[in-house]
Design goal:
The protein is mostly helical and 118 residues long. It is built from seven helices and two strands; from the N terminus they run ααααββααα. A hairpin with a 5-residue loop joins strand 1 and strand 2. It is globular and about 50 Å long. Keywords: DNA-binding, Transcription, Transcription regulation. It holds the Pfam family HxlR.
Length: 118
């Protein structure tokens, strides 16, 4: 198991937010769940540039932090859906602000990002 050599500074709110929300797809996953895309297969189809393994790993991390909860429905085939918790709903203004900033600054960023990297 990995052991950190430098302790994390969890006294800083930005560090806490980054710890929970960092990961290439976590904000997108939270946004999708908020908009009603709740099943893993739906998330994989919607975020099709991410490997399903990565989506599943980030779903587990979000669940461990209490941002989302998983509901398992009985029967075959097994049906799983994810929902935002109250803590997860608290991330929505942050994710909305990121979306707004990205939309407002798209042209600037597109000038800087090398082609094929977007």
């Amino acid at each position: 198991m990995y052991e950190r050599k430098i302790p994390e500074d969890l006294e800083c709110g930005i560090n806490i937010a980054m710890k929970v929300l960092s990961g290439k797809w976590k904000p997108c996953i939270i946004d999708c769940i908020n908009r009603g895309i709740r099943r893993p297969s739906e998330l994989h189809a919607y975020i099709d540039t991410a490997a399903p393994r990565v989506i599943n790993m980030q779903l587990r991390e979000l669940e461990a932090y209490g941002i989302i909860c998983k509901k398992i429905y009985p029967g075959l085939p097994l049906k799983v859906e994810y929902y935002l918790t109250a803590v997860g709903e608290g991330t929505l203004p942050v994710i909305q602000a990121l979306d707004e900033w990205g939309n407002e600054n798209r042209e600037h960023v597109m000038k800087v990002v090398p082609q094929g990297e977007e």
